[in-house]
Amino acid sequence: MSALPVLTTVPASNTSLDLTGIRAEFPILRQQIHGKPLVYLDNAASVQKPNAVINAISDCYSRYYANIHRGVHLLSERSTIAYEGAREKVRAFLNAASVREIIFTRGTTESINLVASSFGGNTVKAGDEIVITGMEHHSNIVPWQLLCQRTGAVLKVVPFTDAGELILEEYERLLNSGRVKLAVFVHISNALGTINPVKTMVDLARARGIPTLIDGAQAIAHLKVDIQELDCDFYAFSGHKVYGPSGVGVLYGKQILLEAMPPYQGGGDMISVVTFEKTEYADLPNKFEAGTPNIAGVIGLGAALDWVNQLGLSTVAAHENDLLDDATVQLLEIPGLSIMGTARDKAALVAFTLQDIHPHDIGTILDREGVAIRAGHHCAQPVMQRYGVPATARASFAVYNTSDEVNALVKALWKVKELFS
Amino acid sequence: MNDLRDLYQEVILDHNKRPRNFRILPQPTHHADGVNPLCGDRISVFLDIDDDIIQDISFQGAGCAISSASASLMTEALKGKPVAEIEHLFEAFHTVVTTNSECPKGLGKLSVLAGVRDYPSRVKCATLAWHAVRAALEQHKQPVATE
Ligand SMILES: Cc1ncc(COP(=O)(O)O)c(C=O)c1O
Questions:
Q1: Which residues of A are known to be catalytic?
Q2: Closest in B1, B3, B39 to A360, CB measured
Q3: How many A-B residue pairs are in contact by the CB < 8 A criterion?
Q4: What is the pLDDT at residue B121?
Q5: Percentage of residues in chain B having pLDDT higher than 70
Q6: Nearest Cβ partner of B119 from A364, A381, A415?
Q7: For the domain that residue B69 is a member of, what is the CATH number?
Q8: A194 lines ligand 1 (CB under 6 A)
Q9: Is the pLDDT of residue A2 over 90?
Q10: Residue A218: what are its φ and ψ, rounded to 5°?
Q11: What does each C-alpha distance from B95 to B65, B73, B86, B99 come to in angstroms?
């Protein structure tokens, strides 16, 4: 592994967050695990939910729930207003041009599959190329492989450096083949923490008339995303990584592309007229939302975005960066520990190995100390292969984490060393 | 720390550090891979069976301490045993790592893995090598998963 990340010299939190107040909003954090206070550092897998979200969902079910878009009765109207209100919240959060460009899905995975199936099926032919990167999550690899199998297209993979930074010259070279129909890349890598230069990457593709899809699963809770400025064609994220419920996610798509795409699934709510001869599809976004959606989940996601807005993403990011710097310094003091992913521009997660101790064992021992981390391949096996390890341990931070929790992580890791010495 | 020592007993740490029978058999009569989809660990087992007796047995692969030690201990336990004994031992072993019942007699050193019962997410690590042996006997061509 190459250069160490550049660290700020003041690891102490200097942001204006009321951490005690924030933690109090997360009921799940007030518990003991194996007799120790819970230290939840598996946020890149899924973040915990504040009362604002829990209450919004419970409110929906206990006060105004009904099916949407189809009832003449008051509850249906109220549910429809809340559901469509959440769509507007997502639009504003992303600064997208129109709510017609916001499609609710089950999550990042479904959003990507929607594009691979509908857009890909329509535009990708044998011999075409799709550019992806070597640091993608399986959910941004497999749908494209399936598309390639169906169509005879090929994947072209952008490599990255030992530090975990994409090699942009290679990206540019791959874009130049004249056969590329789509470029897809992750905004923040869940395995390395790398923040990719997505604006540059979109511009390079756009200059060649190539549309882009960004996997924003890890970015959505850590970085301000301005879709109009970014100017990508598709952006996918999951509710559960941005303090919202699981089972709901978003696909942003440029209106002009979405309009030309065939529906992904058929069913109710996505049609305007059905006869057995022919069906006319509904307008955007309903064309892509077949069947009864996750109504309460969408409403919960809206509440989550309100909650994040109220804190301010830049304040959140500043706090998480402090934790990351603090953790990085302390972890590197542990002999035999090496960090995978040392990009200059990095988000609040740290993936590491400790001597030849298997990450699974690290995870079990940390759990007994109350510290929850992820151990494994992080659904990014190509990244593991790139570094020649079967798995890594990963600690990832959210707004409610504290420097005491970083200390607890470090202390627990020393115990791992002791046990395996 | 103390209850962790129940899981990571000295014998386990030792077999993890210095796995026994950790090599490839040049001409095995039976061979299979076991994969733990949870962590991507992969273990290959090799058997040399003659006259219904396990004449030689070995394994290779990267795994956590539990799966490596379990594979190592398993090869020690099975070497020289009649093939018919495998199912019997596996059943007893499985009972020990998944339930709170008394350790059946005849398990020998394998019983050091009993601590796994308190760590349900690790049971698959402990049984990975056994599943691979089973698959080898059935002459599976595909790697088996632990389910
Ligand atoms: C970078 C990245 N992409 C995609 C996903 C898949 O998200 P989901 O499982 O919510 O569909 C994840 C989640 O782990 C991720 O981290």
A1: 379
A2: B39
A3: 53
A4: 87
A5: 92
A6: A364
A7: 3.90.1010.10
A8: no
A9: no
A10: -90, -20
A11: 20, 16, 14, 6
